[in-house]
Design goal:
Ubiquitin-like (UB roll); five-stranded mixed sheet; rod-shaped
């Protein structure tokens, strides 16, 4: 029977750790490559939002566009030239596949100021209205934030108390409250 020395055990532990670390790094690198590829595809899809393949003769005319940042949950934030003649419904239909939200779930567009700090209005009320009709309100370089309506409806009212606060049952903690 051979007795393992401390140095030998340490060497085995270090090698095992290196092996696990390398495996984790490979999986992280693969995930980053996959995410970069998906982001590139999303950017390409966002750039096609401004073009309308159903009417090729429009490409010859000077179609008025507005440059807006389109963002979704921090996954992307891309400056896009969007046709002003596009209706809100057409825009929503083009943005649905980009976000990956199923078509049977509704989305809404929050219009934020250029600095992103102030919500100005929402583009989900009048679906047949064109972006051009928002001329007084919609300015270049504003932000269109795509929101999943179902997630918004699920969020609890911030003033609503949680169930645990309404309960008369006392709970005790063994940890210090300091």
């Amino acid at each position: 029977m051979q007795i393992m020395t401390f140095k030998g055990m340490l060497k085995i532990l270090v090698n095992d750790y290196k092996k696990q670390y390398e495996e984790k790094m490979f999986s992280i690198a693969d995930e980053l490559i996959r995410t970069r590829r998906e982001l590139r595809e999303v950017k390409e899809q966002l750039h096609t939002v401004s073009s309308d393949p159903s009417s090729p003769d429009i490409g010859d005319l000077a179609v008025p566009t507005i440059s807006l940042f389109v963002q979704y949950k921090g996954f992307f934030n891309e400056l896009c030239d969007i046709r002003q003649t596009m209706t809100v419904k057409e825009l929503l239909n083009k943005l649905h596949p980009i976000t990956g939200i199923p078509l049977d779930h509704s989305i809404r567009l929050r219009v934020l100021s250029e600095d992103g700090l102030t919500t100005l209005f929402f583009l989900d009320e009048e679906l047949d209205r064109t972006l051009e009709s928002y001329d007084d309100d919609l300015k270049p370089r504003m932000i269109l934030s795509i929101e999943h309506k179902d997630e918004i409806d699920c969020k609890r009212n911030p003033r609503q108390r949680s169930k645990s606060l309404n309960s008369t049952v006392r709970t005790y903690s063994y940890e210090s409250d300091v």
